[in-house]
């Protein structure tokens, strides 16, 4: 299914969305360390370019929501961004390292972990630096030796975007690297867009998937896996498992792994 082996024992693999972001501040070492310790099969991050060309793990265009600073990521240097604290806003912000996290540091953290974990990197668009974001991501993955896997099943990295053009740039430059075309409409994901750009998986929201469960079979018919975001509730985890979704992104990786291990037993019993 070109994101790996799909699901172990019929269960989806669990991706920690921005780390264990329900319990720790998103995109921090603290969040990813907890996710890895809780057994996440993969971790997801959003990346943006600083003014001096560094890839940092920040979701929003501005740092206002997730730090004690203010301003556009693209307007500031790495050193300026590193002056802010990225944990004080979150209830779990007092635990662990909550400073600025670079993609370089996250890749090293994941590759150094004591078991294989996939890294899902989402590039944000539209952005000031355009295609340079994908070029920088690929260069970084090449430096770590994970941009040209022998097969998709063996890949340690996956690149994702809501931008079809961004996915196409990755597929053209690194054809063996798995990609996910993200979207929140079934027509976009189930039609020709994923085929045109060569995406190896599609990524609907859980709301879209509930409205259009046929997306799983349509993706499989095209040789693609399905990655669903953001799956936080037991009913949604169970729904994805029953449909045969390959990967679920969640803010609660430990809890989600436990629910899947217990099969049909939910938080309130069978």
TrEMBL record:
Protein name: Glycerophosphoryl diester phosphodiesterase
GO molecular-function terms, A-Z: phosphoric diester hydrolase activity
Transmembrane segments: none
Domain GP-PDE: 12-260
Matches recorded under PANTHER family: GLYCEROPHOSPHODIESTER PHOSPHODIESTERASE 1-RELATED, GLYCEROPHOSPHORYL DIESTER PHOSPHODIESTERASE
Lineage: Bacteria, Bacillati, Actinomycetota, Actinomycetes, Mycobacteriales
Superkingdom of origin organism: Bacteria
Xref: InterPro entries: GP_PDE_dom, PLC-like_Pdiesterase_TIM-brl
Pfam families for the chain: GDPD
UniProt record, GO biological process: lipid metabolic process
């Amino acid at each position: 299914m070109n994101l790996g082996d799909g699901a172990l024992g019929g269960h989806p693999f669990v991706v920690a969305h921005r780390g264990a972001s329900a319990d720790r501040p998103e995109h921090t070492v603290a969040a990813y360390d907890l996710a890895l310790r809780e057994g996440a099969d993969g971790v997801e991050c959003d990346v943006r370019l600083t003014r001096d060309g560094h890839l940092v793990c920040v979701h929003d265009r501005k740092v206002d929501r997730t730090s004690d600073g203010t301003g556009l990521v693209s307007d500031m240097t790495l050193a300026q961004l590193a002056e802010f604290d990225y944990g004080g806003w979150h209830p779990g912000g007092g635990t662990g390292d909550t400073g600025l996290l670079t993609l370089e540091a996250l890749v090293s953290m994941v590759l150094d972990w004591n078991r294989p974990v996939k890294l899902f990197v989402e590039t944000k668009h539209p952005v000031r630096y355009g295609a340079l974001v994908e070029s920088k991501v690929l260069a970084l993955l090449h430096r770590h030796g994970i941009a040209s896997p022998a097969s998709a099943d063996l890949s340690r990295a996956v690149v994702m975007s809501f931008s079809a053009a961004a996915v196409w740039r990755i597929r053209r430059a690194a054809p063996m690297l798995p990609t996910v075309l993200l979207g929140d409409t079934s027509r976009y994901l189930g039609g020709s867009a994923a085929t045109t750009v060569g995406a190896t998986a599609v990524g609907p929201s859980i709301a879209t998937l509930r409205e259009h469960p046929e997306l799983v079979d349509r993706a499989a018919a095209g040789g693609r896996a399905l990655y669903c975001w953001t799956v936080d509730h037991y009913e949604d985890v169970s729904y994805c498992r029953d449909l045969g979704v390959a990967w679920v992104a969640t803010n609660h990786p430990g809890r989600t792994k436990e629910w899947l291990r217990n099969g049909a037993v939910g938080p309130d019993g069978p």
